Amino acid sequence: MSNKLKAASTSIFANIGLLISKIVAAILTGSIGMLAECLHSGFDLVASFLAFIGIKIAQKPDDEKHEFGHEKYESLSSFFQSVIIAVTALFVIFEAYHKLKNPGVVENSEVGIILMIITIPVALLVSRYLSKIAKQEGGSHALEADSAHFATDVIASVAVLIGLVCVKLGFPQGDAIAAFVVAAIMLYISFHLIKETFFVFMDYAPEKEIMEHMTRIIEKYPGVSYHKLRARRAGSKVFVDFHIQVRSTMNVVESHEISMQLKRKLMKELPEIKDVMIHIEPKGKHRKRDD
Questions:
Q1: What is the pLDDT of residue 276?
Q2: For residues 254 and 236, what is the distance between their CA atoms, to the nearest angstrom?
Q3: Which residues of the chain have pLDDT under 70?
Q4: Ordered alpha helix ranges (H), 102-140
Q5: pLDDT tens digits, 150-166
Q6: What's residue 65's pLDDT?
Q7: Which structural domains are found in the chain, ordered by start?
Q8: What is the DSSP string of 137-169?
Q9: Please, are residues 48 and 15 in contact by the beta-carbon 8 Å criterion?
Q10: Distance between CA atoms of 96 and 197, rounded to whole angstroms?
């Protein structure tokens, strides 16, 4: 099993544990803030399954129907996760509004307070772990989305904790206000993730640092000039193409070897690159890099 699938599996088991504990606490307290956290964790669990499925499909080898690979399935899973978060947030806002107008009784608030104190560090550790693996694997959108879920879980849990403390101190509206905070965080994260996946589907260029790294590698190669350098993201992978200019007296074998050396160099130094297409031209055909 790959590191990305191991991370996605860890996310699933962590979400199951968090969800069960929050359901128990919500039943015992009757807190709308805790209910919001239950829904949050419940949909986080669904999102973790989507991340696992998306990553698993994305790692399939190329086939006749997917000659450029399955990488975009990972971004697709991230998109669905984001939509789930947004829908959940709207439901929480609706429930919190009614709870704010008619504050109910929150019982056994101590149970909820203790649970939040326990779950906050757990969610924080899992979020950092998923973020670390996502970066190591060249920017996995599915794992980044999953990491964001746990990050929102931390912030939301802090808000619920504060709300329950307010209830304990005699301010019942604190519970509903905490739910509003949870929903606002969820909406913000979902908007950010939807924007990121939209860029991938529109063949958005990779990060500036990656493009600059590629440029440095190509420019350092002796006897070669280049132009029309382009790159696009597909899930956590990058596809690259550009033109190089070599001596007009160079034969096909020599020019092909140069292109292969450049390709190997790029793919070695930038593991997120899946493929490089290099068009070879004789020097003098184009004078500008941006032709």
A1: 92
A2: 33
A3: 1, 67, 103-108, 137-141, 284-291
A4: 109-136
A5: 887 787 778 778 877 88
A6: 76
A7: 3-201 (1.20.1510.10), 208-282 (3.30.70.1350)
A8: TT--HHHHHHHHHHHHHHHHHHHHHHHHHHHHT
A9: yes
A10: 30
Tokens representing 153? 């879980």
Residues 6+ apart with CB under 8 A from 20: none
Gap between the Cα atoms of 16 and 37, Å rounded: 13
141-168 vs 109-136: helix axis angle to the nearest 10?
A: 160
Task: Please say whether the beta carbons of 278 and 244 come within 8 A.
Answer: yes
Q: How many Å apart are CA 126 and CA 147, to the nearest integer?
A: 7
Distance of alpha carbon 76 from alpha carbon 141, whole angstroms: 9
**pLDDT tens-digit series, residues 29-85:** 777 777 777 777 787 787 778 777 777 777 777 777 776 777 777 777 778 877 877
SS3 content of the chain, % helix, strand, coil (to 5): 70, 10, 20
Q: In sequence order, what are the beta bridge partners of 230? A: 241
- The helix/strand/coil state of 234 is strand
DSSP state of 63: -
The letter for the amino acid at 231 is A
Q: Using CA atoms, how far apart are residues 53 and 81, in angstroms rounded to an integer?
A: 12
Q: What's this model's pTM, rounded to 2 decimal places?
A: 0.60
Q: At what angle do helices 141-168 and 3-29 cross, to 10 degrees?
A: 20
